[in-house]
Amino acid sequence: MPLLLLIILVFTGCSKQSGVREIISTPDAPAAIGPYSQAVRAGNTLYLSGQLGLDPVTGKLAGQDFESQARQAIKNQQAILEASGFSLKDVVQCQVFVTDMNRYPAFNAIYKEYFTGDFPARAVLEVSRIPADGLIEIMMTAVQVQ
Description:
This protein is 27% helix and 25% strand.
């Protein structure tokens, strides 16, 4: 009997049910400005909606410059990650949208302030416009390896 129990545990795992969805919301990041969640957790994976460089207290852009908005967007994602029990080290993928690809080198420098070592997979795309007339929007996916 104990051997059977061990086999069942090995093949089914002792993790959270993968079919359960949990909506994540924290006041430490800007509230959604549309019909979407800040993040959704499914099992050990966290899907974070795009974050702008909005100050979570004022709801306004952290500054008119790219650098301020980029740092604030990452801080907003970091707050959502932490509210979910994740960290930047759990991030496996980032999608970054910028209104000017000439800011790519500046973004890389800022990105390395928050991510070191084994970097997540990433794409940076230039778009014509971002909500709230922001200069950058960042989406992330994070996974907690068990």
